[in-house]
Specification:
single chain, alpha/beta, 11 helices
């Protein structure tokens, strides 16, 4: 049965897509069949990490939501390297301006996706599915997360994030989620990671799964390549691997 994981955040720019892309790669390296869905259709970005150009995207999640294709038709098979035993099946959004305008101008619902996810996972024999939603408290409340096994909240050391993530935690308590993880991302190197963990736990009254340090090498890649493939021996890759294990166990 597919393990379904959604990685959410209160606001944009916390490194959510970067983490999803790199963890999906590590899971593929471990031999998993990994599904990735970019439901952030107002500003999709996951396809950049997998070197999928806009011109190569025939059908996207947008087409599925408008009823012009199936999930299977919107699925793109990603082969990272010939020596990697697993595979990634990506359903991207599209950055075409007219599609973004259409999304902003017309109401849309992700509820059809909830109904079709299970059969799509079975069709592609997925071990794990990672979902990248749009950030925000309203999106958290509106998203149907009944199909999610693990919900991950990603935050940075920012006052907005502290307050917003706290509100999201309060909301989650009212929803039946089997597993919820809290991850603090992009912590400056001169901050003590254990000190940060204790501060966040005391402030939000919730256990922190991982504290991820800021990486200049990660920033320098500019979403063009996967960090875990470029720097397999880096401590950050090892930490991503530890987080991936917590996601799927």
């Amino acid at each position: 049965m597919t393990k379904i994981i959604m990685i959410h955040s209160f606001r944009r720019g916390v490194g959510r897509s970067t983490m999803i892309a790199n963890i999906s790669a590590l899971l593929a390296i471990a031999g998993k069949r990994v599904g990735v869905i970019d439901t952030n259709i107002q500003s999709p970005s996951l396809h950049f990490f997998f070197d999928l150009n806009e011109a190569d995207i025939g059908c996207s999640l947008n087409n599925y939501l408008w009823g012009t294709c199936t999930l299977a038709q919107a699925t793109h098979h990603i082969t990272l390297r010939s020596d990697i035993p697993g595979q990634i099946f990506l359903i991207p959004g599209t950055c075409q301006p007219h599609e973004i305008v259409r999304v902003l101008s017309n109401s849309y619902s992700l509820h059809p996706l909830d109904a079709d996810i299970e059969s799509w996972c079975e069709e592609f024999g997925l071990d794990v599915l990672l979902i990248d939603p749009r950030s925000g408290l309203i999106e958290m409340a509106a998203a149907s997360i009944a199909v999610v096994d693990t919900l991950v909240l990603l935050m940075r050391l920012d006052r907005q994030d502290f307050e917003g993530t706290g509100m999201m935690l309060d909301l989650i308590k009212k929803v039946d989620i089997s597993k919820m993880l809290l991850v603090v991302n992009e912590v400056p190197g001169d901050f003590g990671l254990n000190m940060i963990r204790k501060k966040v736990e005391q402030t939000l009254q919730y256990d922190v799964t991982a504290v991820v340090p800021y990486s200049g090498k990660l920033l320098a890649l500019g979403s063009k390549k996967l960090f875990v493939l470029e720097y397999p021996q880096d401590p950050l890759t090892e930490l991503y691997g530890q987080i991936a294990e917590k996601f799927v166990i």
